[in-house]
Amino acid sequence: MGLNTEYLLRCIEALEKAYTLIRESQEGTVEYEMYRNSLVKGFEMTLEQTGKLHRKKLIPYFSGKKKVDTLTFKDLFWYAFKYSLIKDEGCVERWMKYRDNRNNTAQDYGRAFAEETLSLIEDFLKDVKNLKAVIENG
């Protein structure tokens, strides 16, 4: 039985919408800034939601929930690869990059950070949709 991914789906939809709108906006406009801010926040929320769901998905592979709760975000994805929930090591490495980008958010909400996040979105959306399917179906 899969986990409930309704909130993750809403996060993905909001992120896709922000991505569509930013591509339709002219850089330097207030609209562009607004959509970029929304995209960065949507990226953060979607990433955090994937971690929470992935943690739940891994519980059966460990001796209990407490053990899974001790894993870092990055550990979750390496264990998912180990247990074949993620089949491609390159995908795991992209998730590490997404997390590193997210960790930089706490220190830098500047333009360069936002543009770096924007450059990750297309791959991120593909990866998060694939992960959603894994979380739902196993």
Compile the SSE list and pairings:
Blueprint: H1 6-24, H2 30-58, H3 65-69, H4 73-82, H5 89-105, H6 111-137
Helix pairs in contact: 1-2, 1-6, 2-4, 2-6, 4-5, 5-6
Give a written overview of the molecule:
There is one protein chain. This protein has 138 residues and is mainly α. The protein has a single domain, classed as Four Helix Bundle (Hemerythrin (Met), subunit A) (Up-down Bundle). The chain has six helices and no strands. Helix 1 packs antiparallel against helix 2, helix 2 packs parallel to helix 6 and helix 4 packs antiparallel against helix 5. The model has no long low-confidence stretch (mean pLDDT 88).
List keywords for this structure.
138 residues; mainly alpha; Four Helix Bundle (Hemerythrin (Met), subunit A); 6 helices; 0% strand; elongated
Alpha carbon gap, first and last residue: 8 Å
What fold name stands as the CATH topology?
Four Helix Bundle (Hemerythrin (Met), subunit A)
Number of domains: 1
| CA-based shape | elongated
Low-confidence stretches: none
The number of strands is: 0
Q: Biggest sheet: strands, sense, closure?
A: none
Looking at this structure, what is the CATH superfamily? Answer: Nucleotidyltransferases  domain 2
